[in-house]
């Protein structure tokens, strides 16, 4: 019901209340409350203007767009599952190393990344592991004192599984669940969000 119709009903209610006995006025009030209680709430509650930037409607549209982009990145990355490993490789025709793979995939979505895993570890913004989303990078170190040695692309995270797609020297481009991997899990250093500007 639009605002004009609600105003009309409220005006009609006030008129009937003024022109009838109090008993009928109370009865009309009860009928109005039970059948159209949203009218009063809507008339007294200020709603955000969804046409202005930063409002709920425009924010949710931006969030949907970001989620769609993240899913597109994952779908694109999965096309290269099985591609062989090549040190410093940056193309599917020759093979990928870990950072060559992530920079190639994200580059296809106009997200520019260095071809070096150490440099990728400095790009974007750090976020908690629990909040890792598809399209984020996982950066690995053998220990806190050692340099970054590997990077992977998150494809799924539900708090129990953290699946990534990455190019490994022994298996090429594969999907792994980091939470069940005794090799990869202890080497997780941080998550980098390179999707959000």
SSE blueprint and pairings:
Layout: H1 3-19, H2 22-44, H3 56-78, E1 90-91, E2 95-96, H4 98-107, H5 117-120, E3 125-127, E4 137-141, E5 148-157, E6 162-168, E7 172-177, E8 188-193
Antiparallel strand pairs: 1-2, 3-8, 4-5, 4-8, 5-6, 6-7
Helix pairs in contact: 1-2
CATH homologous superfamily caption of the largest domain: endopeptidase domain like (from Nostoc punctiforme)
Oligomer: single chain
Strand order of the largest sheet: 3-8-4-5-6-7
Task: Give the rounded overall mean pLDDT.
Answer: 85
Residue runs with pLDDT of under 50 for 5 or more positions: none
Question: Number of domains in the coordinates?
Answer: 2
Report on this model:
This protein is an alpha+beta fold and 197 residues long. Helices cover 39% and strands 21% of the residues. The strands form 2 sheets. It has a 6-stranded antiparallel β-sheet with strand order 3-8-4-5-6-7. A two-stranded antiparallel ribbon has the order 1-2.
Q: Would you kindly provide a brief summary of this structure?
A:
This protein is an alpha+beta fold and 197 residues long.
Notable features of this structure?
197 residues; alpha+beta; endopeptidase fold (from Nostoc punctiforme); 2 domains; 8 strands
